[in-house]
Write a structure and sequence with these properties.
alpha+beta; 2 helices; 67 residues; single chain
């Protein structure tokens, strides 16, 4: 299944699209189902939180060492 045959979430219109209908800057994906695409905003928030937590852990790595 190519990216043309998948679902995307348009960040400008907050609508699910099938195929690459809108400019890349306006869409996130691809997703296998329309439901996954519809949940894209929450998925993005969850991933952002996880990445921020990882970055914070990396930033503090070794901070407690008494070297």
């Amino acid at each position: 299944m190519s990216d043309e045959d998948k679902y995307w979430f348009n960040l400008s219109t907050n609508e699910v699209e099938f195929g690459k209908l809108s400019p890349a800057v306006d869409r996130v994906g691809p997703f296998d189902t329309a439901e996954e695409a519809q949940n894209a905003p929450e998925t993005l928030k969850e991933r952002s939180r996880a990445w921020a937590d990882e970055d914070a852990a990396d930033d503090s790595w070794g901070a407690g060492d008494d070297a």
